[in-house]
Amino acid sequence: MAAPAAAPATALSPSRAGGPAPALVTRGLTKRFRSGQVAVDGLDLVVPAGSVFGFLGPNGSGKTTTIRMVLGLVAATSGSAELLGVAVPAAAATVLRRVGALIEGPAFHPYLSGRANLERLDAADALADPRTTRQRVGRALERVGLTAAAGKRYRAYSLGMRQRLGLAAALLHPRELLVLDEPTNGLDPQGTREVRALVRDLAAEGATVFLSSHLLSEVEQVCSHVAILRSGRLVAQGSLAELGAAGERRLRVETSEPGRAADVLASLGCRGVERFGDGAGAVLDGVTPEHACAALVTAGVPVRGLVVRRPSLEDTFVSLTGEGFDVDQ
Predict the structure, then answer these.
(1) Measured at the alpha carbon of residue 96, what is the angle toward residues 112 and 20, in degrees to the nearest 5?
(2) Cβ neighbourhood burial of 248 (10 Å; 0-12, 13-18, 19+)
(3) 91 with 254: CB under 8 angstroms?
(4) Angle at 230 between CA 105 and CA 192, to 5 degrees
(5) 7, 161, 265, 266: which has the fewest Cβ within 10 Å?
(6) Are the C-beta atoms of 71 and 99 separated by less than 8 Å?
(7) How far is CA 14 from the centre of its chain?
């Protein structure tokens, strides 16, 4: 079955005039493969400096291709990108030192220990001071919880440990921008919580974190801004508050007379009226909760409880695209 056309991107003021320059900007960024497949289609993205920015979309929606283009690893078919105010890939060499990245599965030497792998990476950096290598490596390993396993060979690492080592590599030097592609891949719940805390710490230290994921619940807990990609096209971007405001608030009334409650909500012009065993619900659609409550009481409906549910990130995605968000494919 052919994929439905993506909804137009919702404009949600991703940056403010007069503030600091965005950490990442793309304009019309497009990647078309020789087969004719368009992986990324006219992407206009603005990542505010200092934000934790969630880049969302199902697997295969173009997230990793976008990251590879902005880091200069894959040539764009058309469009442009800037990192920290510098055009890439034209001037990538001058800016990438200020950027840390974890893209897909990190690659290391299997017969070297985790510590030795990081030391080799540090030695390859012509601007790194070799006298402080051990301190930097030790600090990076500590931040990702790998100090105890630092002497173990990489080939013996679990998937989660390999992901942690990739994060450590991105943190060997202070970074103004961290680009993390599925950083919790392979981690257990405890590891996921630790990465979440690490991301918050990095943001508190002043770094911008660009976090690609298909797990909406994780992003919702840590990100300040998000962009949603669907089939290579941007369908929305902005702060979580702005995206929530763009969604539909639902009212749920607990009552012993759900039929009468549903009738009152319908008479107010609420949409999507539903009956439940213990109440009724509807999309407020411009009706205030106070007005709805007063109308229910005036009509003699016994109200035991009234809750306004603000849309989750997944609810917002569904309302913007008209379809579910499949995180299992």
Answers:
(1) 135
(2) middle
(3) no
(4) 40
(5) 266
(6) yes
(7) 14
Using alpha carbons, select from 172, 181, 177, 176 the residue that is nearest to residue 146. Answer: 172
This prediction has a pTM of: 0.75
The residue length of the chain stands at 329
Q: Which amino acid is at 211?
A: L
Specify the 3-state DSSP secondary structure of 196: helix
Per-residue pLDDT of 41-77, as tens digits, reads 999 999 999 999 999 887 788 999 999 999 988 999 9
Strand order across the beta sheet in which 208-213 lies: 99-102, 177-181, 208-213, 52-56, 225-230, 233-239
Q: Give strand pairing partners of 55.
A: 212, 227
Terminal alpha carbon distance of the chain: 16
pLDDT attached to residue 57: 81
Segment 217-269, tens digit of pLDDT: 778 888 999 998 888 999 889 888 777 655 667 889 999 999 999 999 999 99
Residues 187, 199: contact at Cβ < 8 Å? Answer: no
For residues 11 and 284, give the distance between their C-alpha atoms in angstroms, rounded to a whole number: 23
Give the C-alpha separation, 281 to 272, whole Å. Answer: 8
d(CA 133, CA 130): 5
Residues 325, 58: contact at Cβ < 8 Å?
A: yes
In the DSSP assignment, the letter for residue 58 is -
